[in-house]
Amino acid sequence: MPKSNGKIAPTQKEKDNLLVRIILKIVPDWMTPNIISVLRLAMIPLIVAYMAMGFYKTSLAMFIIAALLDTLDGTLARARQQISDWGLILDPLADKLLIMTIIAFLLMLYPFKLLIIYVFVFDLFILLVSAFKLNQYKSSGIKPIQPSNFWGKSKMLTQVTGISLALLWLAMPIAPILYASAMVIWLSLALQIKSAVSYA
Question: Which of 111, 113, 130, 191 has its CA 20 to 30 A from that of 144?
Fold first, then answer.
């Protein structure tokens, strides 16, 4: 039985998407969404290590790659209709740990510390609530498979963009980059709250 990352079945639009067809041809069958999630988890300590050493450009590049792997993860899961209990845990866990770990490290370096604390606390709250709901779903025997909505996708995009700009500012400490990162992170926080409300 094929493994999965707990994503929904593909729509006809996704099946006809040229990019999806290319990805399915390029990515081998053994490269399951779960393997990609594990790879993303393995990248987290490397990103932090490069940040600790002051190699901010390298950490930025690896962070972007990890974020892109999340998109690949979701595309494969939908297109191949691979579903597993492990995927329901690994995919969101990799997302949250990636964001929260980088955010926690930024707390020591980023000047707008209150903003970073807000993002970290809210992400931690969502992670705990998700774990609680997943446990409830597993007890009832129902798989909590939900499609990503507009707000969820927008939140992820703005959060990744904001953190990327923050890392870019560490590499190139220019005021416009700093303020741009803060604005995008504030926007991601608002979208995260909206996304949580819409799913609830």
Answer: 191
Among 145, 158, 57, 63, which residue's Cα sits nearest to residue 101? Answer: 63
Q: List the CATH number of the domain containing 102.
A: 1.20.120.1760
Q: Is 191 inside any structural domain?
A: yes
| Separation in Å, CA 135 to CA 34, 120, 130, 143, 170 | 19, 23, 9, 10, 39
pTM exceeds cut of 0.85 = no
Spell out the per-residue pLDDT of the chain, length 200, in tens.
Answer: 444 444 444 454 554 477 667 777 777 777 788 888 889 999 999 999 999 999 999 999 999 999 888 877 777 777 777 666 676 677 778 888 899 999 999 999 999 999 999 999 888 888 787 777 766 666 665 555 555 566 777 888 999 999 999 999 999 999 999 999 999 999 999 988 877 666 55
Say if 48 falls within a structural domain: yes
Domain that holds residue 185: 12-199
Counted domains in the chain: 1
